[in-house]
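Notebook entry, structure prediction.
Reason for the run: the old model in the group folder had no record of what sequence produced it. Starting over properly, with the input documented here first.
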Amino acid sequence: MEETYLLNLPGVKKKILAGGTGPLPHFPPGTKLVFHFQTLLDNFERTVIDDSRLAKRPAEIFVGKMFKMEVWETLLTSMRVGEVAEFWCDAVHTGLYPIVSKGMRLIAQGKDPLEGQKHMCGMGNLFHYNSTGYPELDELMRTPQPLIFIMELLQVGDPMSYQRESWMMEKDEKMQTVPILHMQGNALVKQRQFREAASKYKEAVLLLKTVQSREMPGDIDYINLGRMIIPLELNYCQCMLELEEYYEVIEHTTELLEKHKDCVKGYYKRAKAHAAVWNEKEARKDFNMVANLDITLACLVRRELNALLGENIRSMHVCQKKTYWDTTQDKGEPDGSKATVC
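New structure, fully documented this time:
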């Protein structure tokens, strides 16, 4: 079934490609819309810019939540569940599409959709940056033009039937959620469910960083939020130590110590991670920083150096010695057997 008509919005045309089922849904504020989409240029080739199916996950928006592409809310709320429709939208409606597209691509890669943006309106971000990192989107920024969207509405969710996404929360909601996540993480640690606990701590950190990004660097609120992040980051790193994901610990503690150079626990956890992967020089340096920052921990540091670092180095030397002798012996064997690798 194909039918072309104008929606009650200047600069928009709709063509139904496949009819949906049931009556037109009700879309109160907060309704979750799940859909697949394709974005095409309005040229002879109908060049495809984006396709949510290639990312293997549908897109989601929430009615009334100031999604940057406001026209998408209008398009989707004209559809029935299961309907597939093609929309032609004039350039007046597509100016912010490069930013929306970049954000969705980052989400598909598991990254922060606000990466690289400052706290300003969508158009402010559009003019502040020279490049999105994608040539085809940069071209749309330089030359706004009509676009074609092919959409399939998969699901319409009741606003009360799902847990609110973090980005939908107001500042107060986020701040109230953080201690809950912290306690949930602690409870999971006691059950030795370190992977699940790490997820709770990480979610809490992201909430605080989102709130912090809206504050002026150097202001008291910005500083206090940074201090609240520290114990959550340290708890996350402790979970990663328990899971033996040492390079993850090194990455997160390094980022933490760049902002908080006097964080003793940060140096201690990074030292443990370095020792575990035989980074002798880095481990010694971090353990010594722990002792320098807190003299009461000097005895602990000595024990750690002897017990952890010493054992690792001895194990490495034994392994290297065994490999050397096996290699030497193999040179005289006629069967060409290989040296043992530890």
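Summary: The radius of gyration is 27 Å.
The old model has been moved to the deprecated folder.
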